[in-house]
Design brief:
CATH superfamily of the largest domain: FAD/NAD(P)-binding domain
Shape: globular
Order of helices and strands: EHEEEHEEEEEHEHEHEEEEEHEH
Mean pLDDT: 92
Number of strands: 17
Helix content: 25-40%
Number of helices: 7
Largest sheet: 7 strands, mixed
CATH topology of the largest domain: FAD/NAD(P)-binding domain
Strand content: 15-25%
Number of domains: 2
Low-confidence stretches: none
CATH architecture of the largest domain: 3-Layer(bba) Sandwich
Structural class: alpha/beta
Distance between the termini: 31 Å
Radius of gyration: 21 Å
């Protein structure tokens, strides 16, 4: 019988780790997914966090990871590729192709702050340039496209586009994903251009191509810039999450609940201030609430299975 987790946490930064600690202390079965070195905290030096004079972000995250594991959290250092609702549960699939079922989710993936920063990116946004394969991929059926990026969002996005576009190039200086996912991209017919950098995105009223730093030109109608792991737009597109007016952040209430029952969010994904203290506080609340939700759902399902059906003849 497959394990059904009480809580799966997406993201292993300060918000995700704090959610894992509190959910695990509530005796929930917790799985935390994500790579700590991709957290913006990992490379930071911290002087403005309560009760810490000066500490590196890496030290904070390593300590938090040990705490979470001590209380029973299972940790897999892979990014999430997809989340699909399944009745009252959710099915989460990661880079290596493994899938896990959970009663509740905590989204603590942070927010993507980096743009590609090349000529044509800003000018052609919405005219062939996109930051979300799940949102805009359908507009490029039978068209050639390029995906820029080397992590799970880019490689997974290229696989998705291979089923829609006439040709897909995946471009980045280096690919940093599980070998299984990279192999899936190759098997899907995606052309991998590792070691290639983008010089400019070309076009006037619409994208017509991508010029690479080595002088080569890719004749494409669409350019998908996917720098990092799955972000808020991709999650919103698949789950139906309500976003704020800027379309950058997930809307939550004071219990860190989103508009989807069983889905909670914490940290930078919820908006500014983008600070550790805020992420930790929200992670605490989200972890407690997600564990409580899962416990109630499990109890209700057990009661439904054991109680006689009063309407049955």
């Amino acid at each position: 019988m497959n394990t059904i987790y009480d809580v799966i946490i997406l993201g292993s930064g300060p918000g995700g780790i704090q959610a894992a600690i509190h959910a695990s202390r509530k005796k929930a079965d917790v799985l935390m997914l994500g790579r700590m070195h991709k957290s913006s905290l990992f490379w930071a030096h911290v002087e403005n966090f309560c009760c810490q004079l000066r500490v590196t972000g890496e030290e904070m995250l390593e300590t938090g990871k040990m705490q979470a594991e001590k209380f029973g959290t299972e940790i897999i250092e892979e990014d999430v590729l997809s989340i699909l609702p399944q009745g009252k549960h959710f099915v989460v699939t990661i880079e290596s192709g493994r899938s896990f079922t959970t009663r509740s989710l905590v989204l603590a993936t942070g927010t993507t702050r980096n743009k590609l920063g090349v000529p044509g990116e800003k000018e052609l946004l919405g005219k062939g340039v996109s930051y979300c394969v799940e949102c805009d991929g359908g507009f490029f059926r039978n068209e050639p496209v390029a995906v820029i990026g080397g992590q799970s969002a880019a490689v997974g996005g290229a696989v998705t586009l291979s089923k829609l576009a006439s040709k897909v190039w995946l471009v980045n200086e280096r690919f940093d994903v599980a070998s299984e996912l990279l192999g899936q991209a190759q098997d899907s017919g995606v052309t991998l251009l590792e070691g290639a950098g983008v010089e400019a995105i070309e076009g006037e009223s619409a994208v017509t191509g991508v010029r690479l730093k080595d002088g080569n030109h890719l004749p494409v109608a669409g350019v998908f810039i996917e720098l990092g792991a799955k972000g808020v737009l991709e999650l919103a597109a698949t789950l139906g999450l309500e976003l704020d007016e800027s379309m950058k952040y997930v809307q939550t209430d004071k219990k860190q609940r989103t508009n989807i029952p069983g889905v909670y969010a914490a940290g930078d994904i919820c908006g500014p201030p983008l600070q550790i203290a805020k992420a930790v506080g929200e992670g605490c609340v989200a972890g407690i609430e997600a564990a409580s939700y899962a416990r109630k759902l499990k109890t209700a399902q057990t009661d439904a299975e054991t109680d006689p059906d009063e309407d049955k003849d």
